[in-house]
Amino acid sequence: MSEDIREVARKRIKARRDFWYMIAVFIVVSILLIAVWAFTGSHDYFWPMWPLFGFAIATVFSALSVFGPTSRPISQDRIDDEVRKLGGDPRA
């Protein structure tokens, strides 16, 4: 059981680390895209908003998977309740 908990903890730590890495990449890509837009001289239309918008959506979903309600481990009580709902015996 201790090994299972350690594995879950390892996966959660890795997910958090990957999320913060994604934030860093988002910032760097944002700066690069805005710099390209600024130096090309075409200031009538802010085209970087489209790739940044897509990247922001991906970042929000990544944040939800790491910090949202589905990131919490499933408790044994919750599993037992679901087994009971299905008509089974949770002690089996």
From TrEMBL:
Asked if the keyword Transmembrane belongs to this entry, the reply reads yes
Keywords, in A-Z order: Membrane, Transmembrane, Transmembrane helix
Limits of the 2TM domain = 8-72
Mind telling me which residue stretches traverse the membrane in this protein? 20-39, 45-68
**What is a single Pfam family found in this protein's UniProt entry?**
2TM
Source species of the chain: Pseudolysinimonas kribbensis
Protein name as annotated: 2TM domain-containing protein
